[in-house]
Fold:
Amino acid sequence: MAGSLPKGIRRRGNSFHVDITRKGVRLTATCHSLLDAQTKKAEFQHKLYSGKGDLEALRKRGKSWTIAEGLEYTARVAWSRAVSRDKMIRMGQEAVAFFGQGRPLNSITTEAIDQWLLTLEAKRLADSSINHRIAAISKIMHVALDRGGLDAIPRMPRRRQYQTRFRIVTKDEETRLLFFMGKCGFELQADAVVTLADTGMRVGELLRLKERDVDLEQNLIHIWQTKTRVPRTAPMTQRVHKTVRKRLTSHPSHRVFPINRYDLYKAWERARSKLELTDDPHFTVNALRHTCASRLVMMGVNLRIVQEWMGHKSYQSTLKYAHLVPETMEKARLALERFGQPPA
Structure:
């Protein structure tokens, strides 16, 4: 295991020790996971090589960067502040593991990418998951190309994605879900569920929500860090207003919901078991976002407004809920019926 670790990282018991030195300056740290260690290594390198020094060091290695060097540099300059930073780094690490740390980026051809995709398909990954991994290696290559570490980017074959099934939480399921959460002592998580269902926020957006982002007088929640990097504002329903208000402590920097993903998912799984829905793979916390959008559409809210409410970057993301407006299709059918009728 130790031989396969990146330079500057070694195992120490159940932890990983990071040790980076440059020009007599040494930085060390102990991390609980390899991902944390690689992230910490990238941070140390950014400090030690500050400015153009790190890029010059890479150029001394030759025309082509290795895929490991490309990943580390991309993590610093392109993903350091991304909401999906950890996810993108993890996918980049999967590519490094497949191609090998010392593999020059110039040697990764379209045929090599095809072989990687076949391996991913053999693992039964969904088309969307495969495309996310292609996006990660594509970003690494674009960063290297822009900085002289790569001659050209090969064609990146992507999988055609079809509309996947999404789950809507019924009102009865929500009522029972909240009941079981409260009964099991998960009051904070139950309040989080209510807020997610009525605002359509992503879980990460909810967990980052600070008290200063809540405007009780205007009845608004301001969401600054989003997946699309475009801030948006979500109006509060009466029950969200009541739920959020009781969580405020007059400390603007405090989080409204001081829990982590594990706390929320643990409560969800416990209540899901009580509902006897453990066999339903689509009944997840993320279903609450789909539920919010679906309820808006079913109540006749214009799709453009739904797009703004949900913070969808593309209108196509909102259109997947259009089939939930049956009266629209019925109006179209009646229009054709009238067209075929003889004039009065």
